[in-house]
From TrEMBL:
<keyword id="KW-0460">Magnesium</keyword>
<keyword id="KW-0472">Membrane</keyword>
<dbReference type="GO" id="GO:0006950">
    <property type="term" value="P:response to stress"/>
</dbReference>
<feature type="domain" description="AAA+ ATPase">
    <location>
        <begin position="233"/>
        <end position="386"/>
    </location>
</feature>
<dbReference type="GO" id="GO:0016887">
    <property type="term" value="F:ATP hydrolysis activity"/>
</dbReference>
<keyword id="KW-0812">Transmembrane</keyword>
<dbReference type="GO" id="GO:0005524">
    <property type="term" value="F:ATP binding"/>
</dbReference>
<dbReference type="InterPro" id="IPR058017">
    <property type="entry name" value="At3g28540-like_C"/>
</dbReference>
<feature type="compositionally biased region" description="Basic and acidic residues">
    <location>
        <begin position="308"/>
        <end position="330"/>
    </location>
</feature>
<dbReference type="InterPro" id="IPR003959">
    <property type="entry name" value="ATPase_AAA_core"/>
</dbReference>
<dbReference type="Pfam" id="PF00004">
    <property type="entry name" value="AAA"/>
</dbReference>
<dbReference type="Pfam" id="PF14363">
    <property type="entry name" value="AAA_assoc"/>
</dbReference>
<comment type="similarity">
    <text>Belongs to the AAA ATPase family. BCS1 subfamily.</text>
</comment>
<protein>
    <recommendedName>
        <fullName>AAA+ ATPase domain-containing protein</fullName>
    </recommendedName>
</protein>
<dbReference type="InterPro" id="IPR003593">
    <property type="entry name" value="AAA+_ATPase"/>
</dbReference>
<dbReference type="InterPro" id="IPR003960">
    <property type="entry name" value="ATPase_AAA_CS"/>
</dbReference>
<feature type="compositionally biased region" description="Basic and acidic residues">
    <location>
        <begin position="451"/>
        <end position="489"/>
    </location>
</feature>
């Protein structure tokens, strides 16, 4: 009975407080109400021992989604899925990825860090004007609120929040779907990157392969080192070699090893250096920026400033369409200095942890300033297929580690230059199920044919060289006879005198 009376009294007190507050809001001036709320809040926070930090979903004037909010959402979704009673799942139909869970609105979960207990709560602010709609309002504001005791302020701000952001970013990178980007003018478009190449399947000498893998892993773990020496956290790789030696496959293997996105930059689609900088700014960290066949992309092999010929200046097309086409063709393009600034200038430090990869078939054609150390830090030559590389291909294509025909193939590969792409084509099964021995015999025939062709070419070259030498000797003998004939009349004239 006493408890009933106590609850009745409590209810009367609450009703009285609500009545008084309603009267204050109705009849008190706005300034007085604001003053009461201000000092009342100060009195409440003086006795309330907990602090709160709010992370809003959208910040700034441009309605940009907060990166901190997104990172915290990832962290809480990964760590609180077993605690929260109400979760929301992302739509994974288009991405073909497992469902991603996160806290639903107005849900709370607990966390512990170095023995300190903290609470995370998710909330949402509704717009002032409520309208009936089947779609969520664009004015809704979601947020996460962290509550902790005020005596742990330094620990939370100094250690816990950086820990949350670091863990959230790591989870986001681990669970993200990697993309392959390409540019159309100054805009990037992307598709899902699903290339299966790895360093285990790359046809290359094991020693050289290990050297590249160690270099990549060392780079990915050297953030503190690059900060200490005052360099942007990036590294340049120049891949060069004959067509079919596996340059594109190497790029895919590098991206798969480090879990990086790939930005395939088409320089011919970039209007000028300004657009190039814009594209660079829009790239993300943990990425590989690729310019394939750079010797064919732009005129970067000759002088940095090219003079216009006089006949080109005087040539004025009469057709308006031709004139417009010529104006488009002669519009400003990316220059060598702009590309160099892209690689290691001031703008190159706008993102961290990136690889910049150039590929070319002819290294000697490139400007030395473009490929010097510090820009292209590591030069990797992808050569013709040797026996070690063949064994990798045989294991990939035929599941063979040894065979009686390997000895003959090893001898032929030492005598003939064949690219890994050509070797792989011979190892492709021509029937189902494939016969490994038939594929090896096909490779042997291909190597023997190529050997005969090279010998014929060498003989033809020797015969051509011999004919050229004979022609030169004949020309020199003719010249000598002419000189002698020229001198003989003079001697006859002297004799007559």
């Amino acid at each position: 009975m006493k408890s009933g009376e106590m609850f009745a009294n409590l209810g009367s007190i609450i009703a009285g407080v609500m009545f008084i507050w309603a009267m204050i809001q109705q009849y008190c001036p706005y300034e007085l109400r604001q003053c009461v709320e201000k000092y009342g809040s100060k009195v409440f926070t003086f006795f309330y021992p907990y602090l709160q930090i709010t992370f809003n979903e959208f910040t700034g004037e441009r309605f940009m989604r907060s990166e901190a909010y997104s990172t915290i959402e990832t962290f809480l979704g990964y760590n609180s899925s077993m605690q929260a009673k109400r979760l929301k799942a992302s739509d994974a139909i288009k991405t073909n990825q497992p469902l991603t869970l996160s806290m639903d609105d107005f849900e709370e979960v607990a966390d512990e860090f170095q023995g300190v207990k903290l609470r995370w709560a998710s909330g949402k602010l509704y717009p002032k004007s409520q309208t009936i709609s089947f779609y969520p309002s664009s004015e809704e504001r979601r947020y996460y609120k962290l509550t902790f005791h005020k005596r742990h302020r330094d620990l939370v701000i100094g250690s816990y929040l950086p820990h949350v952001l670091k863990e959230g970013k790591a989870i986001k990178v681990k669970n993200r779907q990697r993309k392959l980007y390409t540019n159309s003018g100054s805009k990037w478009s992307c598709v899902v990157f699903q290339h299966p190449a790895t360093f285990e399947t790359v046809a290359m000498e094991p020693k050289k392969k290990k050297e590249i893998v160690d270099d990549l892993i060392t780079f990915s773990k050297s953030e503190e080192f690059y900060t200490r020496i005052g360099r942007a956290w990036k590294r340049g790789y120049l891949l060069y070699g004959h067509p079919g030696t596996g340059k594109s496959t190497m790029i895919a293997a590098m991206a798969n090893l480090l879990d990086y996105d790939i930005y395939d930059l088409e320089l011919t689609a970039v209007k000028d250096n300004t657009e190039l900088r814009k594209l660079l700014i829009e790239t993300q960290s943990k990425s590989v920026i690729v310019i394939e066949d750079i010797d064919c992309s732009l005129d970067l092999t000759g002088p940095r400033k090219k003079k216009v010929k006089e006949e080109e200046k005087d040539a004025t097309p009469k057709d308006p369409n031709q004139k417009q086409q010529k104006e488009e063709d002669t519009s400003s393009k990316v220059t060598l200095s702009g590309l160099l600034n892209f690689i290691d200038g001031l703008w190159s430090a706008c993102r961290e942890e990136r690889l910049i990869v150039f590929t070319t078939n002819f290294k000697e054609k490139l400007d030395p300033a473009l490929i010097r150390r510090g820009r292209m830090d590591k030069h990797i030559e992808l050569s013709y297929c040797n026996f070690e590389a063949f064994k990798v291909l045989a294991d990939n294509y035929l599941k063979l580690e040894s065979h009686q025909l390997f000895t003959k193939i090893s001898k032929l590969l030492g005598e003939v230059q064949m690219t890994p792409a050509d070797v792989a084509e011979h190892l492709m099964p021509k029937t189902f199920p494939g016969d490994p021995e038939t594929c090896l015999e096909s490779l042997i025939r291909g190597l023997e044919i190529k050997k005969e062709e090279e010998e014929e070419a060498a003989k033809h070259k020797d015969s051509s060289t011999k004919k050229e030498q004979e022609a030169r000797e004949k020309d020199s003998s003719i010249k000598k006879e002419a000189e002698q004939n020229k001198e003989s009349p003079e001697s006859d004239q002297l004799g007559n005198k």
